[in-house]
Amino acid sequence: MSVVVDGHPAPLLRLEGVQKTFGPTRALKDANLTIPTGGVVHVLIGENGSGKSTLLGVLSGQIRHDAGTVSLEGRPVRFGSPVAALRHGVAMVSQEIAVAPDLSVAENVLLGRGQVRRWAGISRSASRSKAQGVLERLDFDVDPDCPVRRLRPDQRQMVEIARALTAEARILILDEPTSSLTDDEVGSLFATVRRLKAQGVAIIFVSHRMQELFEIADDITVLRDGVTVAEGSAASFTPESLVSAMLGEDPPAGREGGSAASAGVGSDDPVALRVSGLVVPGSVEDFRLDLRRGEIVGLAGLVGAGRSEVLESIFGARGHAAGTFEIHGKPYVPHGPRRAIAHGIGFVPADRKADGLVLGMSVGANMTMVDTHDAPRLAPPARGRGAATVARVAASLRLNPQLAETGTARLSGGNQQKVAVAKWLVRRPGVLLLDEPTRGVDVMAKADIHQELRAIAAAGSALLVNSSEIDELLTLCHRVLVMFRGRVVADLAVPDTDDSEILKLAGGQPC
Q1: Kind of pairing, strands 462-466 and 431-435?
Q2: Where is this region: Disordered (predicted)?
Q3: Phi, psi of 221 (to 5 degrees)
Q4: Do 238 and 277 have their domain in common?
């Protein structure tokens, strides 16, 4: 039974004056958040580095706060571990999906906490039945015996949500749940969120996509520099007021000033990258592209359309069965990232933690690692572009210069993404491949990244961008290649298309 305060039940969850310091860094200074009852979707928003990740860590038992109070139904709590948080009904699904791909759906749903035991050990039939019940609660129609590696990203996310529900979670934290999903998959996730809301679960939802926030939110809390600066019902905010609250000022003009198509690229501009007849078995069939200097081309399509496989093959990170390549008119054979870099090709991968960064190294070392990759090991530090270039790129992406010596693992996910992009901006390759380049970054950071990408294109680099956000492609690119089941089905000039046409083509419908 919850505590009664002034004749009213205490809020389901309340954080008051929460503080947390990591060495000289005050990640949380005065964080407050209130969820009055179950059955609501509470959005938490703030710039990268505002303290969101730390606050979620406190709530999920991964981080112990230094000061302030966390209360559940009026009773102060201090979680010593994620297990302790789960015992109190608080579960978190993080941005990086954590599943065991070789185990079945049922085994993943019950992993660590839900197996049904009998005198002779674990009852597989009873465990499967229990998992099936949780899946039905989510209206998630999937075979419990199916290996998780066969599932799409959104389906894997559903498995994680189902796992949280086996702990009878009353508060479910979803950290950037839509960052790697297509529009159709986002719609499916939102249907699940609304279903859980109707069942009385309170959901803390973190996202940087403004349109999504207003579609799903009941209430919003805004963090800035570790302090709660605004909170209230979603109806009391506008996109402009949210951005102003996040920045502490009016958003700067001209940061997202229309499509890159306004710059114009002519058919007589030299071809920087030519791909002919690329085949990746099971993923890509007869992919062709002429990417010109100064041009930004987008790749659109559903999950499994082959977009990422195209980028990985060009960079030499994935094998291919057929196809020829030219860089600035000269033959190029993809044979590993080192050769690609030597030919002036850069690549921002979709998974920044596994493929884009060395988390154990400092921010500064990550930003310069590509530019100095071919330097002798004992070469002096001045070998690269120099501190001035690194400082300029950091400033353009609003990365605090004091972070240079900070371990990259300590950054928020959004700031890690900035570093993953920044190391290539320092290098300024002739051809830059980008796979979900703004995944997990806030609205202003996205504008900063877009502006820098436009700048290097204007300086002569050619960019090939894969994004699940059609709005991003329409904002950033000159033209968009739409892929369906491994093939390019349309090559569209951005001024002559829109999101509805791209969505239809990506789903295999003729326009």
Answers
A1: parallel
A2: 247-266
A3: -120, 135
A4: no
